[in-house]
Amino acid sequence: MKVSIITVCYNSKATIEETICSVIEQTVFSQVEYIVIDGASSDGTQDIINKYRGFVSVFVSERDKGLYDAMNKGIQRATGEIIGILNSDDLFNNNQVLENITQIFQSDNEIAGVYGNITYFRSENPNKVVRFWRSKPYYATFFEDGNVPPHPSLFVRKRVYDEIGLYYPSFKISSDYELMLRMIKVYRFKVHFIDMVIVRMRWGGESTKSLRNVVIGNKEIIQSWKRNGLNLPLIFFLKKLGIKLLQLVKL
């Protein structure tokens, strides 16, 4: 089963090499189409990518309209049956992640998406987990209860994107939330939860690195529900906050 892994990067010299290595060290890398979309970096990121050019199937370096525009470029170029996105400051948790994921997809053709858990770490201490996002199997009121699959852990069949479309590049923070809401809640594609850590992320992503970004992200979540003709529950954000706090408490 061919898997397309997309890494989006921009001025990621400090982290991109670890990300690339976590992909090419996968036990099933021979089945991987590795796509790297660079936003015309100027800090030496391209030099590091070129060092591993023999492992990269598709490399594009050009200006883009933001993170989600770059992701869309990768998806449009992907030829694998399964697509996963690993950003340039994230790592697969171990070298058997893709092997485990593909086995699940192969077990049931009706499964359109697979997701699991993720952890966060600080760059100065990669071995110390500062947040554990333990998800749960999907159920009818999953989104209403403030849940969402951890996007970095999500793998999707290409046919899903062919049917429902791509990320909205006009969203700056929460287009991944909107796409998952559209895919799972609106189109009702079957998803499977695997209770294992899929990805390790560096602490301080776009959605949480400033209060302004938090506000923008929450506004886009509200727009996501409206865009899909859904009613956002009144205490949604309270439930969402409670889930995040528990992820920190349970470390």
From TrEMBL:
The keyword Transferase applies. Transmembrane segments: none annotated. Pfam families: Glycos_transf_2. Keywords: Transferase. One of its GO terms (molecular function) is hexosyltransferase activity. CDD domains: GT_2_WfgS_like. Residues 4-144 form the Glycosyltransferase 2-like domain. The keyword Lipid biosynthesis does not apply. InterPro entries: Glyco_trans_2-like, Nucleotide-diphossugar_trans. SUPFAM superfamilies: Nucleotide-diphospho-sugar transferases (SSF53448). This is Glycosyl transferase. It comes from Chitinophaga cymbidii.
